[in-house]
Amino acid sequence: MFGKDDLVDNLSRDLDRARGRRDALASEATTLMAQIAEIEARLSEEKKRRERERVLVEIEAIKTRIKQAAGAFAPVVDGLSKAIESAAAVVPEARELNSFLVSVATEIDSVLDPLLRELDQRADALRTGHVALDLPSSADEPAIELPKDSNERLLRFPAWLSRDKGADKETAESPRSTAA
Questions:
Q1: How far apart are CA 163 and CA 107, in angstroms?
Q2: 101 lies in a domain?
Q3: Distance in angstroms (rounded) separating the CA atoms of residues 64 and 136
Q4: Domains in the chain: how many in total?
Q5: Which residue, of 6, 23, 72, 105, has the greatest Cβ tally within 10 A?
Q6: Angle at 68 between CA 144 and CA 172, to 5 degrees
Q7: How far apart are CA 80 and CA 99, in angstroms?
Q8: H or E segment at 144?
Q9: Is there a domain that residue 20 lies in?
Q10: 29 domain-assigned
Q11: Model pLDDT for residues 139-159, shown as the tens digit of each residue
Q12: d(C-alpha 76, C-alpha 70), whole Å
């Protein structure tokens, strides 16, 4: 009977060791699952941070392009205005074109500052995490160029830029042309 008790004792010890290893492995598995969850959360936060950073860079690039285009527009308007003043000596109706040109320049000036402020507000909201923006990359967008064809029609403001929403309907019905 001595051999049977040893077998039972050996099996009991083996069972206890197996349970101990199982419990240790279960504890390690729980620890690993917690570590995985923590790493996934950090990874997600880092991805969000990088996306916010990318969008902030895009907003700054948009602001830079707007300022560059506005800076390029002012000398063009000045040059056109001087040329139109010279033409008005020969063609009095040119003064009407000059007043239209001044009104376009004034409209652009009046909407640029609010647009730039709105971009700054969106960037601030993004920095504080109050909003998530998804902007396409501007790397694919061409640089701003002045029209090469002097007979091109004047560009119309998009509806969201116009202060007078009723004017959009009027300009769509009676478009003006720079061709004389």
A1: 8
A2: yes
A3: 16
A4: 1
A5: 105
A6: 60
A7: 11
A8: none
A9: no
A10: no
A11: 455 554 544 544 444 444 444
A12: 10
